[in-house]
Amino acid sequence: MSFDRLIEKIVEKQNPTVAGLDPKLAYIPEYIKEESFKKYGKTLEGAADAILTYNKGLIDELYDIVPAVKPQCAYYEMYGWYGVRALAETIKYAKSKGMFVITDGKRNDIGTTMEAYAIAHLGETDIDGEKEEAFGGDALTVNGYLGSDGINPLLTICEEKDKGIFVLVKTSNPSSGELQNLEFRGDETVYLHMGRMCEDWGKKVVGKYGYSGVGAVVGATYPEMLTELRGELPKTFFLVPGYGAQGGGANDCKGAFDQNGIGAIVNSSRGIMCAWQKIEGLDEKDYAKAARQEAIRMRDDLKSVIGEMKLK
């Protein structure tokens, strides 16, 4: 299954991290923007061109040490179809370097509409008998709060195309508890119930390392809940946001991992992308090298509390 490939990459690199590619123009060095604006002007096309150049530079410095990237769709969609093209090209480039790609779209719908999202991001589009990948990600973040009607259309593609999904369970944002922490049916929380639904949805797509193709998004900003969910959801692989810029640290993430040091991948976006802006006197052309240094620091920080990562 899809997460078997991710787990193998994590163990190979001894690195349970994913670099979030959530680019803003403010994160991009001036020399890149100047070159793109010279070609296309200060337009949507110029911005998208700068983003793609920036992303490729990051990927070139990260692919041998970081197993995965996670582009967030919104940061590309804001530049219209030029930005969407940059998203597709970013995914293609990362995969050409052997990276696992988690497309962060948080898609949420039912029936044939959800099937269309699944085909777009994980499957192949039928063009009058010919099939072609539209985006080609390895996994997609989704919102499960429409219930099984919004998840079942994804499971067929996950099984057929060796893909995975990450369902929002306990998110890292401060207001997540307004809904997710509510208790019902005794003392069961909404987030725990959603997690148990992930376990159930994943039963038909369990991989050789014991984790299913239905993962869960669980934030590092709530370490006690992260530990609770690891115990309750033994077959659910976690995508863990909240490390770094949102305040989560390595110790906060520790509870996401099993006894073999696997079971989760931890995201950092601004921490890696903007590392160059935090080093006084750094030549902006070394932005990607600064990202590499931060990715290594993050890897070593997590490994110091997780230990060696090994296959079951």
Automatic annotation (TrEMBL):
<dbReference type="GO" id="GO:0044205">
    <property type="term" value="P:'de novo' UMP biosynthetic process"/>
</dbReference>
<keyword id="KW-0456">Lyase</keyword>
<dbReference type="InterPro" id="IPR018089">
    <property type="entry name" value="OMPdecase_AS"/>
</dbReference>
<feature type="active site" description="Proton donor">
    <location>
        <position position="106"/>
    </location>
</feature>
<protein>
    <recommendedName>
        <fullName>Orotidine 5'-phosphate decarboxylase</fullName>
        <ecNumber>4.1.1.23</ecNumber>
    </recommendedName>
</protein>
<keyword id="KW-0210">Decarboxylase</keyword>
<dbReference type="InterPro" id="IPR001754">
    <property type="entry name" value="OMPdeCOase_dom"/>
</dbReference>
<dbReference type="Pfam" id="PF00215">
    <property type="entry name" value="OMPdecase"/>
</dbReference>
<comment type="pathway">
    <text>Pyrimidine metabolism; UMP biosynthesis via de novo pathway; UMP from orotate: step 2/2.</text>
</comment>
<dbReference type="InterPro" id="IPR011995">
    <property type="entry name" value="OMPdecase_type-2"/>
</dbReference>
<dbReference type="InterPro" id="IPR013785">
    <property type="entry name" value="Aldolase_TIM"/>
</dbReference>
<dbReference type="InterPro" id="IPR011060">
    <property type="entry name" value="RibuloseP-bd_barrel"/>
</dbReference>
<keyword id="KW-0665">Pyrimidine biosynthesis</keyword>
<dbReference type="GO" id="GO:0006207">
    <property type="term" value="P:'de novo' pyrimidine nucleobase biosynthetic process"/>
</dbReference>
<comment type="similarity">
    <text>Belongs to the OMP decarboxylase family. Type 2 subfamily.</text>
</comment>
<feature type="domain" description="Orotidine 5'-phosphate decarboxylase">
    <location>
        <begin position="16"/>
        <end position="279"/>
    </location>
</feature>
<dbReference type="GO" id="GO:0004590">
    <property type="term" value="F:orotidine-5'-phosphate decarboxylase activity"/>
</dbReference>
